[in-house]
Amino acid sequence: xxxxxxxxxxxxxxxxxxxxxxxxxxxxxxxxxxxxxxxxxxxxxxxxxxxxxxxxxxxxxxxxxxxxxxxxxxxxxxxxxxxxxxxxxxxxxxxxxxxxxxxxxxxxxxxxxxxxxxxxxxxxxxxxxxxxxxxxxxxxxxxxxxxxxxxxxxxxxxxxxxxxxxxxxxxxxxxxxxxxxxxxxxxxxxxxxx
Length: 194
Description:
It contains nine helices and no strands. It is globular, with a radius of gyration of 18 Å. The chain has a domain of 124 residues: Orthogonal Bundle (Tetracycline Repressor, domain 2). By secondary structure, the protein is mostly helical. It comes from Nocardia macrotermitis.
């Protein structure tokens, strides 16, 4: 059995701050979340947050980078579940794994809020970097044609709409049309700030 790496105190606190930032930024967005709220959730002082992350935008970008790391890990998990090495099957399993990941809406809402704050150059760059990372992984791991990878990413964005607006539980015909054959695991019940 391999020994687990021991994190230094600052590394452990950095991870705790990033986790707290994901939760807080997912609830209130970049512009609406003060560092003091993230610090309180992480159980440290705002000054220590600024010691780890020199600015609010640095913290938001770190949270977003971590989000995309988790997305890529999720896609890798889905690809491993594929019964056959077929591009369509691999992309389907990746999509299912991503649906499971965003059942916890914090990562999803962080991405939504990042898009709404894309006027901040560092956030726009982080979104492009993360989307590029996910797209390149989906392409290289599935070996699917470009148009299938494009459709995969487009369906991911549609899943964001369906999940954030709870469209798969709406009776309107237009909502049913958009959500047809797309199902997501039920989100765990929690308060918005949990």
